[in-house]
Structure to design on (112 residues):
């Protein structure tokens, strides 16, 4: 049930397969050491250039006049307002002023 086209195609493929030898299928020889190609030289040069640019940028930013050496002070934290907590506002009593010392009875020094 094979057609003449199929028989001719099988014959052509078998003839082509007969031309392939062991030498055609053998692996290439392993590389002999590493080479410093232009790709690797460029990569090292760009890495050195990038590191030098980073150091220069840090030096320029650190030495610019007008920069603050110390950070701005941060305000102290405060308790949340009642509107944010959902609890009713509770007034805090103001501290009473200290009592005035009495001058009526002098005390000796060193007594309580």
């Amino acid at each position: 049930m094979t057609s003449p086209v199929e028989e001719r195609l099988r014959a052509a493929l078998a003839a082509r397969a007969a031309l392939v030898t062991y030498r055609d299928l053998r692996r290439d020889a392993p590389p002999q050491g590493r080479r410093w190609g232009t790709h690797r030289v460029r990569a090292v040069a760009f890495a050195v250039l990038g590191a030098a640019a980073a150091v220069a940028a840090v030096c320029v930013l650190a030495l610019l006049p007008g920069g603050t050496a110390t950070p701005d002070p941060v305000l102290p934290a405060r308790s949340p307002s009642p509107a944010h907590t959902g609890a009713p506002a509770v007034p805090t009593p103001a501290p009473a002023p200290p009592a005035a010392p009495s001058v009526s009875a002098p005390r000796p020094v060193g007594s309580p």
